[in-house]
């Protein structure tokens, strides 16, 4: 292919000869082939096979990362979900802890005695009737949120339940609508905002109301506008009503979980963190239930004709003593 010649000045000049690709292929093939010399045709065939095997091996190595990316890793691919479920953003934790201490003082000296008296005076069936009445009063807000969440069927069911239970059920103390196959469910404007993609915002502990986030707190303000009590009670009566029904110091809820709260407070290393985690899990579970509710149009329309549909959302049941982890998670409704 090339050689050198000596010029008149004694220097060596490089001379390039024409490159013969076929000859080079044969030389390489013969070099790769161990043993005695082989014919040119067989040497060329062996070289082509070796080259093809190398190309296939490279392609196989390139395909390994792509296949690994296509198959989900059960340990690491859910990293975003793990971080999402880690807990709420709590940038003002010192302030929230202070409010929690105030709520605990109110609970110890005001709410706990009232709860004990409430449990002593009213038997369990009467307490469940009070709870049903409070749920019934909240029905107009539930109807509005059902419509905003794209679930007109649930809105119709809730509105019918409200009419039946407010009349035949004596202001909601009884639930004859359940016998008419009209199951109850609960939702609020905080969940409506969540389904619309509004982020939670910072975690808050509010006096009387208890744990919430900026999104849920603003949603509560909207729900407040659709409750009949907003227009029937005086401002002072509203404060009393909030203490009676809402979150941390709503003693109808507090009474149902008094023992669980006391057990959690006695066993938890960090009571604030335990309550925050329990509330967060309950809140996120409620949002997921509403997002997957089969009666929402976005879920119902693609599944029409696919079979029977189960009840959706978070069903409202009578508050009764619970056991195990269910009781621990139920205390998220407090503070």
Domain module count = 2
Any idea what the shape is?
elongated
Q: Could you list the spans in which at least 5 consecutive residues all have pLDDT below 50?
A: 66-70, 72-84, 317-335
Total DSSP helices: 16
Q: What does the oligomeric state look like here?
A: single chain
Quick check: average pLDDT? 76
Q: What series of H and E elements makes up the topology?
A: EEHHHHHHHHEEHHHHHHHH
Helix content bin: 55-70%
The value of Rg in angstroms is 36 Å
Strand order of the largest sheet: 1-2
**How would you characterize the largest beta sheet?**
2 strands, antiparallel
Spatial gap, N to C terminus: 89 Å
**SS content category:** mainly alpha
Number of strands: 4
In percent, how much strand structure appears in the residues? 5-15%
Task: Give a written overview of the molecule.
It is elongated and about 110 Å long. The strands form two sheets. The chain has a two-stranded antiparallel ribbon with strand order 1-2. Strands 3-4 form a two-stranded antiparallel ribbon. The chain is mainly α and 335 residues long. Residues 66-70, 72-84 and 317-335 have low confidence and may be disordered. Helices cover 60% and strands 5% of the residues. The chain starts with a strand and ends in a 5-residue tail after the last helix. The chain has 16 helices and four strands. The chain has helices at residues 21-32, 40-70, 79-84, 93-121, 124-137, 139-148, 152-167, 189-195, 214-225, 229-232, 235-245, 251-256, 258-267, 271-291, 297-300, 324-330, and strands spanning 2-6, 12-16, 203-206, 210-213.
């Amino acid at each position: 292919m090339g050689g050198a010649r000596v010029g008149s000045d004694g220097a060596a000049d490089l001379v390039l000869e024409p490159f013969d690709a076929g000859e080079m292929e044969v030389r390489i093939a013969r070099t790769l082939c161990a043993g005695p010399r082989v014919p040119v045709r067989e040497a060329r065939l062996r070289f082509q096979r070796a080259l093809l095997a190398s190309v296939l091996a490279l392609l196989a190595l390139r395909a390994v990362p792509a296949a690994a990316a296509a198959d989900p890793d059960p340990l690491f691919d859910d990293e975003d979900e793990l971080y999402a479920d880690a807990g709420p953003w709590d940038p003002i934790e010192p302030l929230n802890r202070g409010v929690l201490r105030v709520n605990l003082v109110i609970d110890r000296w005001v709410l706990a005695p009232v709860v004990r008296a409430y449990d002593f005076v009213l038997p369990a069936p009467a307490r469940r009737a009070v709870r049903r009445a409070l749920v019934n009063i909240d029905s107009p807000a539930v109807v509005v949120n059902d419509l905003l969440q794209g679930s007109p069927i649930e809105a119709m069911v809730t509105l019918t339940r409200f009419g039946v239970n407010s009349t035949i059920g004596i202001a909601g103390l009884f639930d004859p609508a359940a016998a008419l196959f009209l199951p109850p469910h609960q939702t609020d404007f905080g969940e409506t905002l969540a389904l619309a993609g509004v982020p939670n915002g910072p975690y808050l502990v509010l006096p009387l109301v208890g744990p919430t986030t900026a999104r849920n707190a603003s949603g509560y303000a909207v729900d407040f506008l659709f409750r009949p009590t907003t227009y029937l009670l005086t401002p002072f009566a509203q404060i009393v009503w909030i203490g009676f029904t809402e979150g941390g110091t709503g003693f109808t809820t507090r009474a149902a979980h008094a023992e669980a709260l006391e057990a959690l407070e006695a066993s938890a290393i960090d009571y604030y963190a335990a309550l925050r985690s329990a509330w967060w899990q309950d809140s996120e579970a409620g949002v997921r239930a509403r997002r997957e509710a089969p009666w929402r149009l976005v879920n119902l329309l693609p599944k029409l004709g696919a079979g029977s549909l189960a009840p959706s959302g978070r069903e409202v049941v009578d508050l009764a003593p619970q056991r195990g982890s269910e009781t621990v998670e139920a205390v998220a409704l407090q503070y």
